[in-house]
Amino acid sequence: MEDTSTLILDIDKIRKDFPVLHQQVNGKPLIYFDNAASTQKPSSVISVIKSYYENDNANIHRGIHTLAERATEAFEASRKTVRDFLGAAYEEEIIFTKGTTESINLVASSYGRNFLDPGDEIMISAMEHHANIVPWQMLCEEKGLKLRVINVTEEGEIDLADFEQQLNPRTKIVSLVHVSNTLGTINPIKHIIDASKKQGAVTLIDGAQAVSHLEIDVQELGCDFYVFSAHKIYGPTGAGVLYGRKELLEKMPPYQGGGEMIDEVSFEKTTYNELPYKFEAGTPNIADVIAMKTAIDYINKLGKKNIAAYEDELLKYATEKVSKLDKVTIIGKAKNKVSVLSFVVAGMHHFDIGLMMDARGLAVRTGHHCTQPLMKHFGLEGTARASFAFYNTKEEIDVFVDSLTKITQLAK
User: Fold this and answer.
1) Which structural domain, as residue segments, surrounds residue 25?
2) 1 within a domain of the structure (yes/no)
3) Last residue of a domain, which of 281, 300, 319?
4) DSSP code of 254?
5) Which residue of the set 134, 147, 356, 370 is catalytic?
6) Does position 3 have pLDDT exceeding 60, yes or no?
7) Weakest mean pLDDT among 44-53, 110-119, 251-260, 396-405
C-alpha cells in the first residue's frame, strides 16, 4: 500500500468529493455532524454503483458470460481489498453480510448455537450497541447460558478490574465494541483479547465505529471475529463484513440455506460450499459490495494516520469550546477517544436540542443511540451527539458552538 503518512489533508478539495454536503437545510448551509450513525459518500462511490447497474449488472459466480465475469471479478476484488484493510491472512476469512448486525447474528447463530453448552458464559460490556447485546441475550435464553456485563466507569471507560474479576473458565465468548458509538471511547481490546484467550474464550470485536478512524490489523489484535458496516466508512448501506479466523469458520455450519452456499443438492442430502461462500447464501448486495472497495480505496488514499490526526484535532477543538458553555455537560470523558461528542443541556430535552440544531442547518443525532443500558448507567434518557469526519471543519464547529450557546439560553 502507498505510504501516505506525509500527506496533509486538503479539506476544501475533499469536501468537493461529497455532493450531499453542498446544499441548504432550512435555509442554512448543511453542517453534517451525524457521522457516527452514517458517513456520507464520495462521488467515486456513487459513480461505481451507477456504473455497475449501467454496464455490468449480472449475478456473480454462476455465469460464464461477460457481464457475469466482470461482476464476479469486481466483487472478489472487494474481498481482497477488505482482507488487506483488516490485515487478515486469507481472503476466505472475509464474509460479506448486510452489515455489523447481521455479522454478529451470524456468529451468535452459527458458532454460539453449536459450540456452547448450558452454564457457559458470554461477556459483553455496559457500553455495547443493541446489536451486540440482543443476539447474545437470545442465545442465552435458548441455550441456558449466562450473560455477564463488564462495568463502565463514570469517565466512560471499560472497568478492567471488573472485567478481570468476572472472566473465568466458563467464559466462552467475549464480544466487545472497539469504539463506543455513544461515547467515542477507544477500548483496550488488545489487552481484553489476550486475557480472554488465556481463559480459552473466543473473541468478537464490533468494529463499526473503529474502522473509519483507526488502523486495524486483526492478526496483530489476535481476535477471532471482527465485524463492521460499509456505511460507516463512506460506503453504501446494506453491505458489511464478518472477518473470522479460518479454522473457526471451517467448523461452523452455514447461517442460511439457499443458492451459492451449496456444493451439491439432492433430496436425500446437501453438501456445502467452501469458504467464504458457505456463509453467503443467495444473491448478495453486489453493487454495494463492489462500491465498498472504492470507499476503502478513498480512505487508503487519504491515509488513516492523517484522518485520525485531523479528526482528533476537530474533537479537541470542539471539546474545549463546548466544555466552557453553561448548562452543558459532556458525557464520556475517556482518555482515548475518536471524534464523538455526546452532551446534555440542563433543563432541556435532547430531542429539542436536535430540532433546534436542525433549524440552523446542523445535523446531530439525538436519543439513546441504540445504547439504552449505557444511558441507564449514566441516569439519562438520551443525549445529543455530534460526530466529526475528515470533511468537517473548525468553522463548522464554530457555527455549532454558537448555535448551542443560543440554545442553552432557552433552557429552563
Assistant:
1) 11-41+303-408
2) no
3) 300
4) P
5) 370
6) no
7) 251-260
Q: What b/e readout covers 168-184, taking b as 16+ CB neighbours within 10 angstroms?
A: eebbbbbbbbbbbbbbb
Q: Which residues contact 79 (CB under 8 A, 6 or more apart)?
A: 91, 94, 96, 276
- The C-alpha cell that represents 264 in the structure block: 451439491
**Angle between the N-to-C axes of helices 394-408 and 304-323, in degrees from 0 to 180, rounded to the nearest 10:** 30
Same domain for 211 and 316?
no
Q: Which three cell numbers mark 221?
A: 489484535
Provide the pLDDT for residue 380: 93
Same domain assignment for residues 210 and 222: yes
In a domain, 2, yes or no: no
Residue 171 lies in a domain: yes
Q: Which three cell numbers stand for residue 32?
A: 453534517
SS3 174: strand
Judged by DSSP in three states, 121 sits in: strand
- Residues 412 and 347: their CA atoms lie apart, in Å, by 5
Alpha helices (runs of H) in 180-285, residue ranges in sequence order? 189-198, 218-221, 246-251
For residue 412, CA distances in Å to 225, 353, 379 come to 47, 13, 19
Cell numbers at residue 182, please?
455513544
Which of 300, 321, 351 terminates a domain? The answer is 300
140 counts as catalytic: no
Q: How far, in Å, CA of 193 to CA of 182, rounded? A: 22
Residue with cell 462500491: 291
Distance (Å, rounded) from C-alpha 234 to C-alpha 317?
23
Is 221:190 a contact under the CB 8 Å cutoff? yes
Q: What is the pLDDT of residue 5?
A: 39
Residue 186 CA to residue 390 CA, distance in Å, equals 18
**Residue 83 to residues 95, 141, 225: CA-CA distances in angstroms?**
10, 34, 13
- One domain, residues 354 and 398: yes
pLDDT digits (tens, 9 = 90+) for 180-217: 999 999 999 999 999 999 999 999 999 999 999 999 99
DSSP structural state of residue 245: -
- Whether 95 contacts 249, CB under 8 Å: yes
Domain membership flag for residue 402: yes
